[in-house]
Amino acid sequence: MRSMLFALAGLILGGWLTAGVRADDKKETTLKGTVQCAKCALKEPGKCVTVIQVKDAGKTVTYYLDDKGTNEEYHEAVCGGETKEGTVVGVVTEKDGKKWVKPSKVEYAKK
Question: Which DSSP state fits 96?
Answer without folding.
Answer: T
